[in-house]
Amino acid sequence: MILRISQPIARTLTFRVPKTHRRFFGSSSNQNRVFANIRTPDELHNLTLVSAADNRPLITLWSASWCTTCQAVKPIVKGLIEDERIGEQEGGLGYAEVELDSTLIGDLGVKYMITSMPTLLAFSRQEAQLETKLVRPEQMKDREFLRQWLMTEARRGGRAGGGGGSLFGGLFGGR
């Protein structure tokens, strides 16, 4: 890989980047990425930015520590993404859990119309895919259904779609 840096007045610099360092210079990897739990609106914003820059959808699991159904769903979702690497062939996924019982989370649940826990919500290019969010625990516990949902979101490849164009896109079908 050759990296060229040009400046309007200065001369062009050319140097070789060793293979071991190419990942730092934008070589894309289809590997799924599991991020730390989200506890503030800024953390969610930052992760949606990172995922958009990687052209990789971000899958978020909205849950609370006291929610027993959430605790049952978490290992299934995380296992499919982290261990079985579902979505990597389609370009990769990002994954993070949003802690709704964090005292710093504010009205983030209201902003994204989270009406029940657990909820799985994908973001593509920083847009919440409200039309495709999962709210039924029985679907989240069905490994085959969940596998298909994750692959569909991964195929989106960080591209907008699914009614995420506006806050009310999921309710009124607008983009």
How would you describe this structure to a colleague?
This protein is an alpha/beta fold. It has one domain (31-172): Glutaredoxin. It contains six helices and seven strands. It has helices at residues 41-53, 68-83, 108-111, 137-141, 143-155, 169-172; strands at residues 2-5, 13-16, 33-34, 58-63, 94-99, 119-124, 127-128. Strands 3-5-4-6-7 form a five-stranded mixed beta sheet, with helices on both faces. Strands 1-2 form a two-stranded antiparallel sheet. Helix 2 (68-83) links the parallel strand 4 and strand 5. It is globular. The N and C termini lie far apart (39 Å). The relative contact order is 0.17. Mean pLDDT is 82; it is low at 9-27 and 162-175.
Q: Globular, elongated, flat, extended or rod-shaped: what is the shape? A: globular
CATH architecture: 3-Layer(aba) Sandwich
The H/E string reads EEEHEHEHEEHHH
- The total count of helices amounts to 6
CATH topology: Glutaredoxin
Largest β sheet strand count, sense and barrel closure: 5 strands, mixed
In CATH's first tier, which class applies? Alpha Beta
Instruction: Note the beta-strand portion.
Output: 15-25%
The rounded distance between the terminal residues' Cα atoms is 39 Å
Indicate the mean pLDDT. Answer: 82
Tell me the CATH superfamily.
Glutaredoxin
Low-confidence runs: 9-27, 162-175
Proportion in helices: 25-40%
Structural class call reads: alpha/beta
Organism: Melanomma pulvis-pyrius CBS 109.77
Protein name: Thioredoxin domain-containing protein
Domain Thioredoxin: 54-132
